[in-house]
């Protein structure tokens, strides 16, 4: 019982200290101290959880479940929004959903329709259009769009633009040029995707040892990354390492 009392006091003190440190007021300190269990739980779920990584992960999983149960629900909603108000934002959101669904022709048509008037040189729309053309296997137009972004919007998501450019070059069979792009991204791209794609290209070009080095780097760095979005690349890299050691 004494150990439980000590543990309860430590938890109370931790939550109370957090409330004071984050400026949430004396009200929460009083609630936490007067009602140890209920107060701490209330503080966590009202003040901490809504702003936490766990809440964002949970929200994403709920969204994924909703999409699985009603896969066309978001597409229908975006279509209705664009039909009601044909703003650039609504049409671009519908294009994003079409791209997500693999409806590349429709996505391209919508993105191109948005690139008009004050939005004719919008970097985000140009990049989205480049992505749609890439996934539609229109390599040359995608490359031209990316080069246009680099020339007119050099500060727009440079790492993402460079990664897509590397993928376009790789798809066009220009392995040497793609390798240069991937190598330039090695220490500046946040996340594992660029490193994984770089390793896969090295493997395809017969540079197995270099590829395994990069796959190993992903696994080592993965121990310090808790981002859910990066786990896909970690799993793929682990699979490659296991296959190489089999």
Describe the model:
With about 250 residues, this protein is mostly helical. It folds into 3 domains: about 1-45, no CATH class; about 75-155, Tetratricopeptide repeat domain (Serine Threonine Protein Phosphatase 5, Tetratricopeptide repeat, Alpha Horseshoe), CATH 1.25.40; about 155-245, Tetratricopeptide repeat domain (Serine Threonine Protein Phosphatase 5, Tetratricopeptide repeat, Alpha Horseshoe). Helix content is about 75%, strand content about 0%. It has helices spanning about 1-20, 25-35, 35-50, 55-70, 75-85, 90-100, 105-115, 125-135, 140-150, 160-170, 175-185, 195-205, 210-220, 230-245. Helix 1 packs antiparallel against helix 2 (about 25-35). The longest helix is centred in the first third of the chain and has 20 residues, at about 1-20. About 25% of the residues are buried. The model has no long low-confidence stretch (mean pLDDT about 85).
């Amino acid at each position: 019982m004494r150990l439980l009392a000590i543990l309860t006091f430590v938890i109370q003190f931790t939550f109370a200290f957090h409330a004071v440190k984050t400026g949430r007021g004396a009200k929460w300190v009083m609630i936490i101290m007067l009602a140890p269990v209920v107060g701490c739980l209330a503080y966590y779920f009202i003040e901490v959880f809504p702003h936490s990584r766990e809440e964002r992960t949970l929200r994403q999983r709920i969204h994924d479940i909703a999409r699985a149960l009603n896969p066309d629900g978001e597409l229908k909603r975006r279509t209705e929004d664009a039909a009601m108000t044909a703003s650039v934002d609504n049409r671009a959101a519908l294009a994003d959903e079409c791209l997500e669904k693999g409806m590349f022709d429709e996505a391209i048509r919508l993105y191109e329709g948005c690139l008009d008037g004050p939005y004719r040189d919008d970097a985000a729309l140009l990049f989205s259009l480049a992505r749609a053309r890439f996934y539609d296997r229109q390599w040359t137009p995608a490359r031209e769009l990316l080069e246009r972004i680099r020339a007119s919007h050099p500060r727009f998501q440079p790492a993402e633009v460079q990664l897509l450019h590397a993928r376009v070059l790789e798809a066009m069979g220009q392995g040497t040029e793609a390798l240069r792009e991937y190598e330039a991204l090695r220490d500046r791209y946040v996340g594992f995707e660029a490193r994984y794609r770089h390793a896969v290209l090295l493997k395809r070009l017969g540079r197995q040892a270099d590829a395994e080095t990069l796959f190993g780097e992903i696994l080592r760095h993965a121990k310090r990354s808790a981002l859910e979005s990066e786990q896909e690349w970690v799993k793929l890299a682990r699979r490659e390492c296991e296959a190489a050691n089999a």
